[in-house]
Amino acid sequence: MKQLAYLLLIICTTTVSKTPKPLYRSAVIAFYNLENLYDTIDDYNVIDEEFTPKGDKRYNSQIYFDKLSHLANVLSHIGTEYNADGPAIIGAAEIENKRVLQDLVHQHALISRNYQIVHYDSRDARGVDAALLYNPKYFKVLHSDKIFVPLPAGAKEAFYTRDILYVEGILAGDTVHVYVNHWPSRRGGEERSAPARETAAYILKKHIELIQRNDSAAKIIITGDLNDDPNSPSIKQVLQAKYKTEKCTSLDIYNPWNDFYQKGLGTLAFNDAWGLFDQIMLSGTWLNKEQNGFFFYKANIFKRDFMIENIGRYKGYPKRTWDGNIYNGGYSDHFPTYVVTLKKVE
Questions:
Q1: What pLDDT, on a 0 to 100 scale, did the predictor assign at position 328?
Q2: pLDDT score of 157
Q3: pLDDT at 219 exceeding the cut of 90
Q4: Is there a domain that residue 295 lies in?
């Protein structure tokens, strides 16, 4: 009897002292440049003639819906190894209007997620804008606006570029501030066009500082096709992004993509050189893993074999939609990126 009592004491002590592993809830944040997602209708206010049935690309409804299906297929798979529902929020670039996004989220691969849309028209000469898709199961919009980016004289031949989209919302209990960017391109050369991107970075930085002055613990998310790499002056000097978590204060911007770039990894390729223009950065408030809210876990470039060109001059590149004016049946000339955030669940 004494032996049995002693054995029960050992079993109970072992059970009580065993520390349970913490459980986590995940939220995936993604960004994807959708490569010229135009409808087939000629908008006389913008330069979109090539993306019409009479244009050089002979763009038609069959191509349009084929592209939508391809893009939806990619979006439906992003981050599903961390959350079966995929991204809670998706920053998107190179979309013509809200209508094309409505067609996108109603594709078979995405319709069950009930993605909602935040979009504003900007005065970009090509008529492309930035937008946000969000799953209402995870995210609720509190406020949204567009931020005008004035181009410096002589930086570009166009007078207007894409506005920065700003959205404040609740991400599964956390108040977050999301920016979707598509900074001016490198057309005309990297050096000549750099001031335009530095201006976009400056406008973004000032808006973030305004948010942080009102709330020093604000959680900031910066997504976008920045047309610059992680080590470019617009990001390293103007945004003053940090690449080491230990060097970040709560008011700093953390950029997890520098290590990817230094290893030769990227989201788009040109002349066999990889660039990493598609980035998601976070304020330092995401780095504390002991907080009650979501914290940064990891960053990834999303690419699967079906998204990669396997023949021709673009072999190994993202499988693009167009090869000149010939429909290539691809997805985008950019790979999407995403970050995974976690929150402890009691």
A1: 95
A2: 53
A3: yes
A4: yes
